[in-house]
Amino acid sequence: MLAFVIFYPFAAAVCYAFMRGKKSSEKENNIWSNVCIVSGAVELIAAIVLLFDLLGDGMGKLMKVSFLTFDVGGNGGAGAVLSTVAAFAWFVVYLFSREYMKSDKSVIRYEFFNLMTLGATMGVFFAGDLFTLFFFFEIMSFTSFMWVAHRQTRGALYAAGTYLGISVAGGMAILMGLFIIYNQAGTLDLNSIEECCAALMQNGSSRQWLYIAAGCLFAGFGAKAGAFPVHAWLPKAYAEAPAPATALLSAVLSKTGVWGIWIVTESILGGDAGWGAFVLVIGTVTMVYGGLRGVLSDNLKITLAYSSMSQLGFILVGVGMEGILKALLPAADIAVNQNPVFEGYKMAEQGMLLHMINHSIAKLILFMTAGIIFMNIGSYELNRVRGFGRKKPVLFTVFALAAAGIGGVPLLNGYFSKTMLHESIVLCGKQLAGNVTYASYLGGLVNGVEYLFLFSGGLTVAYMLKLCIALFVEKNEDASVQKEYDGKKVYASFFTRISVVACALLVPMVGLLPLFVKREIFSLESLSGAAVSIGTGIVIYVVLVRFVVFDRKERHYRDIFPRWIDIEKYVYRALVYKTIPFLLGIISRILDSLLDSIVLILRKTVYRERALPHELPEGNRITHSIGVSMENIRRIYYVVRKKDYEPKNYEHKLALKNTDFFESLRIIERSLSFGLFMFCVGLMLTMVYLLVVN
Questions:
Q1: 597 burial class (0-12, 13-18, 19+ CB within 10 angstroms)?
Q2: Rounded Cα gap, residues 62 and 200, in angstroms
Q3: How far is CA 248 from each of CA 115, 242, 254, 516, 659, rounded to the nearest angstrom?
Q4: What is the DSSP letter of 203?
Q5: Per-residue pLDDT at 330
């Protein structure tokens, strides 16, 4: 079954590409859309069967899924749950794509790479060793690149170039990290690597190499996870990709990056507080920065893109807390449930996994809703889509459920996961207060993260309020446009509505789960954290959105974030296209001058020219000697035969032959050099094309 789950999408992609004709009628397009929906359903059923098969038999399997009480590794567990979420996401997106992609000119290419990406994603979550994970991760990066470049507009190609460049650089970083780990640990197997790396951490020199390897892996996986500062591809790629692809990028593919970082934190540097603190800091910056950009944006899809970045920051905070709490937990008490540190460790782990699932559900709803709006209006600009959702109760309900869920409103899915993450931070802060080893540099950090965690929760509430009020409460500036919006009673097909409603039903279902498995999550202390975030979000909305982002004179939204703060344009591209070539040019000039100096010194010393008794008019010493000798032999011959001597000028003829011979050699040499030079130029242009595309 495992092989089927992974390789069935690849086989389906090949069959789809060969069997479907380039020109099809509307009826045939609907049939092929149904085929894709059936393929997604088959994959979802297979993933569910495999999940319950891996988790074991009996009622305990349901509790395992509820509490997420399983570990990272190549034996299923968390990977099986995330793969099931991925299969579900693909299935509902196929339902949504039936209407969204029906008039697309390149739908065959899109569906082919869509299925290929599904298979690669399954391979990432089920990989039993790091090299297999890397193999499928790279396939996924290149196939999903076609999502971003799908429209082939100038903006899409620019975003795709950024996405591919960062993906290739990240893949090279991961590969370098794997080389180091294999050289030090002798294995890449996920079931045994933790034990090997734990032994290496006791060795001072090996510890440094593991840190370097972990840094390389973090750079590669963090790029896919949208972690600051390697998030530069995320807003542009999300904005340019079709809405179904954007939903999958946010809901599933970003989780593969978090999955890789979690493996590094759990299996390679498990129990290292310094590494946990590093991930915690990166997660916090990602969480706050994404939230601020989401609040300050005037574009629906870009707001959702930065929302994804912020929520991924919440998840990375959970990974960092897990690493720190594991370091605080004595080895003898690693499995003792009564230990409060162990309780916090499991809270961080379960909250992180659960928020990955909750974020996937919410972003499927939000991006598909944005796609519905785009199908009707053709724009994501907030000022143009204002008022579209008025008098559309179903659209409002699903959007509001997802927005409130991701905002952490009690009884909805986001509250459960965010509260568990918050309580792990609080518990860690209490434990650090009495820990002499770590309190000096971790105590203040964890306390600061708690405040920023609640503040970022408020940012989430603020930008979701902004979207809900703009879409469903406010009226469009143009009264005739608003009248047109209000008149749209049929704005989505049956399959599109089913896809969105199916995801929306999961929001309260997961939100009510604590009533059956973890009722204490609704304690007064837990609810107070959610209340602080919601209250902060309302204040941020009133102060920042209504009085700064919203221009009260012009009565429209505006993007007030400084445009010059563009890391992708003014840091990465400037570094690759300007700074690095400039520095390499200086180095090349220095080396060229140095080489010329060395050649000059050698010509003046070892290879200096010897003075000739006289300068030969043509040829060289050899042609001169042979020519003179042949001429003397001819002169003797004529003397013996008593004939008049007629000179043949052999020296001149040999000089000409010598010149022709060496000129031919030089032509051959120049041709070979030119061929090698053109080969190098072609290879260089190929690499530039792969990195830049546009």
A1: exposed
A2: 37
A3: 12, 10, 9, 30, 69
A4: S
A5: 66
CB of 271 closer than 8 Å to CB of 307 = no
Q: Tell me: the pLDDT tens digits for 89-103? A: 999 999 998 888 887
Phi (first) and psi of residue 240, to 5 degrees: -90, -25
Closest CA to 140 of 181, 81, 86: 86
The answer to whether the peptide bond before residue 244 is cis (omega within 30 degrees of 0) is no
- Is the confidence at residue 61, as pLDDT, over 80? no
Q: Which two tokens stand for residue 689?
A: 């094309």
Using an 8 Å Cβ cutoff, are 266 and 195 in contact? no
Phi, psi of 556 (to 5 degrees): -150, 160
How many whole angstroms separate alpha carbon 423 and alpha carbon 429? 10
Two structure tokens written together for 343:
């309780």
Domain ranges of the chain: 271-561, 563-609
What are the distances in angstroms from CA 502 to CA 89, 372, 626? 11, 15, 97
DSSP readout, 47-93?
Answer: HHHHHHHHH-SSTHHHHHHHHT----STTSTHHHHHHHHHHHHHHHH
* Ramachandran angles phi, psi of 336, nearest 5°: -95, 110
The residue count of the chain comes to: 694
Number of Cβ within a 10 Å radius of residue 629: 12
Contact 376, 488 (CB under 8 A): yes
Lowest mean pLDDT among 476-485, 574-583, 605-614: 605-614
In Å, how far from its chain's centre is CA 682? 28
Q: Kindly write down the DSSP assignment for every residue of 627-659, as one continuous string.
A: HHHHHHHHHHHHHHTT-------HHHHHHHHHH
Q: Give pLDDT tens digits for 607-618.
A: 666 554 555 566
List Cα–Cα distances, 56 to 122, 481, 529, in angstroms. Answer: 20, 57, 36
531 three-state secondary structure? helix
Write the Ramachandran bin of 682: left for phi over 0, alpha for psi from -120 to 50, otherwise beta.
alpha
**C-alpha to C-alpha distance for 661 and 325, rounded to whole angstroms:** 79
Residues 185, 350: Cα–Cα separation, whole Å:
29
Q: How far apart are CA 193 and CA 270, in angstroms?
A: 11
Cα separation, 265 vs 320, in Å, equals: 8
Residue 71 main-chain phi, psi, to 5 deg: -110, 165
Identify the weakest region by mean pLDDT among 342-356, 599-613, 621-635: 599-613
Closest CA to 361 of 465, 475, 494, 508: 508
Are the C-beta atoms of residues 145 and 691 closer than 8 Å to each other?
A: no
Query: Across residues 350-356, what is the average pLDDT?
Result: 90
